[in-house]
Here is the input.
Amino acid sequence: MKNQSSRRRFLKLTVGGIVGLTVGNKLLVKPAQAADLPHLSVDDAQAKALKYVNESSFSDKNCNNCMLIEGDASAEWRPCKIFPGKLVNGKGWCSAYAPKPA
Ligand code: SF4
Here is the structure.
């Protein structure tokens, strides 16, 4: 009898916990907004490895026309798939540059 009571209590707590986490997650965790992300520094180790610069020296190749850039096209700084959690300058460039398909 005591085992059934313990099992019931365990199930109630587990289900309650899962529901609480799910609902709590929706209510309490605000998704990061792109504007809140830090700008990628040219001194960042990954940026250096990919030769990232804030201003491209190519006239026709920059982050704004790279297929790996994301976010609002009108923003000066935007997320990039290569540098998660950071924003790259739309005028920038790195060696992972891949032109957007025409
Ligand atoms: S991959 Fe490089 S060139 Fe392309 S958007 Fe990201 S930083 Fe810019």
Remarks:
- The beta strands are 77-79, 87-89.
- Residues 14-29 have pLDDT under 50 and may be disordered.
- Residues 1-30 form one domain.
- The pocket of iron/sulfur cluster is lined by residues 52, 63, 66, 68-69, 80, 82, 88, 92-94, 96-97 (CB under 6 Å).
